[in-house]
Amino acid sequence: MNILRSVLIVMALAVESASAASLFVRPTTVILAQGNSAAIVTLTNSGTAPVTAQLRTFAWDQSGNEDQLTATTAIVASPPMMTIAAGQSQTVRLVRVAKSRASREESYRLLVDEIPDRAAGDAGSNVQIQLRYSVPVFVIPNPKSLAKLSVTAEVSDTVLVFDAVNSGKSHAQISNVVLGYADGSSHVVGQGLVGYVLPDKNRQWKLALPEDLAARGKPQQVRATVNGKEMAVTL
């Protein structure tokens, strides 16, 4: 009984800490379109205690099937650190520093980190939970530039290998990957965001499939949402 009571106390403290530090960032993607050099990002603290957040900007590239982030001052967040009172919001100005127009799409990431309360952690009264948001930021000089995605897919018993090559001049956002079968049924493989392919880059994802899925037979196609539009690949 004492052991159970101790476990319940620890769980209660963890829940209390999580609810006391609830940081949300909007929007989840920032677009700086032609003629715009700044955007507003809003941080909201829905918890019951103050939250301190740090903001950092990174140039974003892709190589070796990995995202590569490099600290940059080409785009800056102001202020770079803040403390937000419980139940309050604060805006951040995200600015592209260069005055010249971008000659191609530029890709960045805004990292928003919740800074744990060291005093509370030292006291040992709460379980510290640190949040991180990684917000894509795109500078788009030409709104007519489009992604041009070529996709191949291969299904084994337990893995869907999804290869995407973007030969276009704009990024491709891939989400909601679904296997389609001849009888009209489907199986959702990747719910929500799967990832991005930047211009002139390629990415591969290996998405796990349940072991019993092979019993349904070979799927006929793979469907995915690319920049809000559905595309299909015949297997």
Q: What does the secondary structure layout of this molecule look like, with pairings?
A:
Layout: H1 2-20, E1 23-26, E2 30-33, E3 38-45, E4 51-63, E5 66-71, E6 75-78, E7 81-84, E8 89-96, E9 106-115, H2 118-123, E10 132-140, E11 149-155, E12 159-166, E13 172-180, E14 186-197, E15 201-208, E16 221-226, E17 229-234
Parallel strand pairs: 2-10
Antiparallel strand pairs: 1-3, 3-8, 4-5, 4-7, 4-9, 6-8, 9-10, 11-12, 12-15, 13-14, 13-16, 16-17
Briefly characterize the structure:
Pfam families: PapD_N. By secondary structure, this protein is mainly beta. It has helices spanning 2-20, 118-123, and strands at 23-26, 30-33, 38-45, 51-63, 66-71, 75-78, 81-84, 89-96, 106-115, 132-140, 149-155, 159-166, 172-180, 186-197, 201-208, 221-226, 229-234.
Global geometry: globular
CATH topology of the largest domain: Immunoglobulin-like
Radius of gyration over C-alpha positions, nearest whole angstrom: 22 Å
> In the CATH hierarchy, what is the superfamily of the largest domain?
Immunoglobulins
Number of domains: 2
Largest sheet report = 6 strands, mixed
Total DSSP E strands: 17
String of helices and strands:
HEEEEEEEEEHEEEEEEEE
List keywords for this structure.
single chain, 235 residues, mainly beta, Immunoglobulin-like, 2 domains, 4-stranded antiparallel sheet, 2 helices, 54% strand, globular
